[in-house]
Amino acid sequence: MPTAIAVTSPDLVLPPTDHQTPTAALLQSPGVQPLDAALADMQVLVEQHGYVVALYPASIPVAHERRLHTVRAMLESDRIALLKLDLPPLGVAVLVRQLRQLSICDFSAGVVASAARLLSHYIYSGAMLHTVAKLDRVPVSLKAHAKSWVPGSQFGVVAAPSPQLIKIGTGKLTGPEFGTQMIIGKGQSTSDWVTATLAPAWQVQGIEESTLPADSRVWWGTSKMVEFAAFLPDISVLYQLVSSVRRENCSWCGIELIGDRCGFCSASLLPAGSSAAGAAVSSTAPAAASPSAAAAPADSQKHATGVLKRGAITQRGS
User: Fold this and answer.
1) Domain 124-233 classified CATH 3.30.1180.10?
2) Least confident of 34-43, 81-90, 267-276, 307-316
3) Model confidence at 272, in pLDDT bands (50, 70, 90)?
4) What's the predicted TM-score (pTM) here?
5) Residue closest to 226 by CA, chosen among 59, 61, 56, 90
């Protein structure tokens, strides 16, 4: 059975791009599902799939995040990875679908989990906003904040892989240098700037519409928005990116990984030459919190980007 991919909201499960892509399991919030039922559901997932990789946006309620950690702790399982992602919700949904695709490839559960940190840097997540007055996840200058109160103002924002903010009509957002498709989710906005201006400027090769995730309004601080995410759509490309990175074994739990941090226990990869004994008392011991996708595995990202530049991946405009 493939590694189970799990999410905290049904709107993070995008339609599959083919008949082979499995769906994702839903991990309900405490207000919807009692603890004993959550424990039973997770136990079934672990027994059926061997490993579970759960992804959730940083914007979910604290009680829901606490429930995830409680379930893992009570089951005393090292087969459950909890990945807290700093991507906007629609970007999380894209990443979830990519990991669903990879889960049926010949990758181990540890590689699938740690691939989330790598692939997140190839998802350009942002939004067109009518106000940035309550935006706190991307740096907003005082000048932009003041312009936010001017009637009719619109802003283009990219939150990841690096923050950008412009007032529409006075600047351009830097996009990916490789071929992508784009998915959009519309809030309470009728603007066509994303599809009519941004997508052509980024030479997007196709646009997909989706329901706006419920957490998007909280993440962006407004409902007057159009969220978007440009991403690598081809499973063969994703496979090449992940395969191009050297695999290691986690110095703490022993699971296979790529990059510099284990997706299951959060331990950092030990430098070459470090002793196993030192690992037990070093700062690489598993952290209490789950790893965030915001931190880039630098060597892995550099190597994978080299794959792009060598032409293994279709370049934009080719």
Assistant:
1) yes
2) 307-316
3) low
4) 0.87
5) 90
